[in-house]
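Researcher: Next sequence.
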Amino acid sequence: MPPLPPPSPTRRLALYTLVVCLLAVAAAVVSFVQGSWLGIVWVLLAGLSSNMTWYYVKRGRAAGQDGPVTG
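Model: Next structure:
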């Protein structure tokens, strides 16, 4: 089995923004459960990072980085 190629910068950025989105959603849930209105900021950050994730995923696909792996 050949080793996997290193992830491209676009794929790496998409992964980082996805992690930020998931952490922001978790922070929003915790804030709202504790009764804090600061959760609204976390929801906005989750929306922004979600849009950034989709942008980098589409950008990577347009560049042909998610083609089939041959080997």
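Model: The CA atoms of residues 14 and 55 lie 8 Å apart. The chain is about 70% helix and 0% strand.
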